[in-house]
Amino acid sequence: MNLFLLGSKMRRLPAPLCTKWPRIKPIEWSLLVVCAATLLWARPACAATALSGEDTLVTLNRIRYHTYPTYTRVVLDLSGPVGHQVTQDDASSLIVELKGAILGEALRQDPLIAVAKKRLIAIRALTGERQVRVLLELSGAFSHHAFTLQSPDRLVLDVFDMALPKTGPSLSPSEVKPPPVPEVKSRPLRIVIDPGHGGKDPGAVGQEGLTEKTIALDVSFRLAKLLRQRPGWEVYLTRDHDVFISLKARRAFAKRHRADIFLSVHVNAHTEPTAQGIEMYLFGRATDKDALSTAARENATSQSETLNFQKQILTDMVQDFTRNQSLEFAHHLQRAFSKQITEKYATNSLGVKRAPFYVLAKTDMPAALSEIGFISNPKEARRLSDSTYRQEIAETLYQGVSQYRALLEDGG
Question: Exposure winner among 26, 78, 159, 223, fewest CB in 10 A?
Fold first, then answer.
């Protein structure tokens, strides 16, 4: 009987619910077991295959570029070796196809790099199924040369002003030899060193009248001397004596001298006298409240004015390429201080930060601002007043600048 107890009464199951299972023969049970086992085995195998396929994809992490007098170098930073093909689509574009590649997080969020400089107008990163296409929009007649570098993996494209030579319509692409790759050292690398403050603007002031403007100028002189003693550098200072120069004029000075690198030298200060350490800045939204406060002090404005400037200037900035290079430059400087200064003197390596500094705004070259210590900290102020320590600071800045130059020469 298909009965069940509900409360105090017996109830009968409805007919559809009391249908009996059909009888299955032993051979049919065997087939069911085999099929189920096959399905259970196959699913993980498929998942593993998909996972394995994903693991083989190479990531295009970022795209960098640098313009030289006779050519422009574009560098694709990759997570591993990748097959590639470079074709000239028309007279004004170059297409790079990367097989088995995907875009990194930064390029997925912002795949367009607006350049608008000589030869190179813009770079676009497009993604398809297991492949990435990079489009270089160019201006004027050009030729190109592509090669790879390892440790880390990079694909380097050099774009030249001149066109490839042609002897006739029957000449095949394989018979056309690209022009020799010019050396980066074909001309000195121009660096503008900017000693902060000056004249009527003393900057931060420490104990016994020690001023930021004096320290910044002395360290900048020492750095300039080190660079001029080495071949391949063309060095300029925005000021070479105790004079006031506006922040706008300092930027204009760097542009007028067509600087390849811009470095502004400063000394930090804080309301808390125990604050200590060294940090590097590039232009951008303030990393934190301290970064905004530092920018306001160096800009000689209130925090609210600096914050308002930050909002205004970032709405029309199309300088992702410059910010990437500035970030790389700042990290090389900070790493040099971590190795040479912070451990030796038991001070803090405060890292690389962003803040809306007027002097770094709208620069079209890698630009960083160094805060080489806290004049408000009695211990650090004593060191900063010592000429031997200032020489160590200058030598450390030199190491960071030189390491960044090596990156440029190696395809960066």
Answer: 26
